[in-house]
Design brief:
Helix content: 25-40%
Strand order of the largest sheet: 5-4-3-6-7
Shape: globular
Number of strands: 7
Radius of gyration: 13 Å
Length: about 140
């Protein structure tokens, strides 16, 4: 399945368009600041992101603003814990576009722009990393 295109604002004030990274492996992680599974998942992905400096891999997080108590909590969490680019969903627009149902949800998009895999809140981070590894 082709990955749906989207554009979203980033917490740093820039704008991100999915099409700017087509041709790379793209890893999207949808999350919310209050989510205990996200608090376990995101630090592992953050460490992976920092240890793997590759031009052909783009790791992004998307704060699902529509699932936050208030948007500021998501921004504060991202500023404190994440160095990956963090986008802010318009409500649950992109979350819904990718048919995500839980937090965190991780979507791996291959270099051809197709969804290679989607992982829900109970996914083992090592399984996600193995999927990424097969594409590199």
């Amino acid at each position: 399945m082709q990955a749906p295109h989207f554009e979203l604002p980033a917490i740093d004030g820039s704008h991100y368009h999915l099409k700017q990274d087509l041709g790379k492996i793209i890893v999207l992680t949808f999350w919310a600041s209050w989510c205990p599974d996200c608090s376990r998942d995101l630090p592992k992905k953050e460490h992976f992101s920092q240890s793997l400096n590759r031009e052909d891999l783009k790791m992004l997080t998307i704060n699902v603003a529509g699932r936050e108590g208030n948007t500021e909590e998501g921004v504060a969490f991202a500023n404190k814990f994440l160095t990956q680019p963090t986008l802010i969903d318009r409500g649950t627009e992109v979350f819904d576009l990718y048919q995500a149902t839980s937090l965190p949800t991780t979507v791996v998009i291959n270099k051809q722009g197709q969804i290679e895999a989607k992982f829900g809140d109970k996914a083992d981070v090592m399984e996600i990393m193995k999927t990424i590894g097969t594409l590199l």
